[in-house]
Write a structure and sequence with these properties.
Blueprint: H1 65-78, H2 82-95, H3 109-135, H4 137-160
Helix pairs in contact: 1-2, 3-4
C-alpha cells in the first residue's frame, strides 16, 4: 500500500513558478477576500443565533404498525403532527410533567391572508396616528382617510366569508 500524502506538507515549487515581488500578488495565489480586521462576531444584520438549548435535534424511531396507529390517532385528536405528538409523549415521560401541545388555527388560508392584511392596515394606521401627533393632523388627514377606506373594505370582505 502507498502511504497517504501529508496534508500539512507544502507543495514543492516547480521550475515555472516565479517568486512574487513584495506588494505584487502572485498569479497562483488567491486574492484575500473581505476585511481582514473584521471578526466573525462583528457580523451585522441577519437572524440572531439560536440558544443551543432551543435547537431541536432529529431522532428517528421505529415502531410497530399497532403503535403507529395509536400515534396517528392521538396526533389527529390533538391536531398536531405525529412527530410533535411522539416528542410530547417522550418529553412527558422524561420530565414527568404534562406536556401542552400548540393549538392549531381553524382558519382557512384566505382568512389568514385577510387577517394579515388587516393587521398590516392597522399597523399603518397606528404609524399615521404617530405622524399626526408629531407633525400635525392636517398633514396626515388624507392618508388616514385612505387607510380607513382600505380597512373598511377588508372588514366588509371578511364579514362576507
Amino acid at each position: 500500500m502507498h502511504p497517504l500524502p501529508d496534508p500539512s506538507a507544502q507543495p514543492s515549487a516547480s521550475p515555472n513558478d516565479v517568486p512574487a515581488s513584495p506588494g505584487v500578488a502572485s498569479s497562483n495565489q488567491p486574492e484575500p477576500t473581505g476585511n481582514p480586521l473584521k471578526k466573525a462576531s462583528d457580523k451585522k444584520g441577519g437572524r440572531p443565533a439560536k440558544d443551543p438549548q432551543e435547537k431541536l435535534t432529529k431522532v428517528t424511531m421505529y415502531v410497530s404498525p399497532r403503535v403507529y396507529v395509536r400515534l396517528y390517532e392521538g396526533a389527529g385528536v390533538l391536531e398536531v403532527t405525529i412527530s410533535e405528538f411522539a416528542g410530547g409523549l417522550v418529553e412527558g415521560l422524561l420530565t414527568r410533567r404534562k406536556v401542552k401541545f400548540p393549538k392549531r388555527s381553524h382558519l382557512t388560508l384566505a382568512q389568514e391572508n385577510q387577517l394579515t392584511q388587516l393587521a398590516g392596515g392597522v399597523n399603518n394606521l397606528n404609524q399615521l396616528a404617530r405622524a399626526a401627533n408629531r407633525d400635525g393632523y392636517a398633514v396626515a388627514a388624507l392618508e388616514v382617510e385612505k387607510v380607513c377606506d382600505e380597512l373598511r373594505g377588508l372588514l366588509s370582505k371578511m364579514a362576507r366569508l
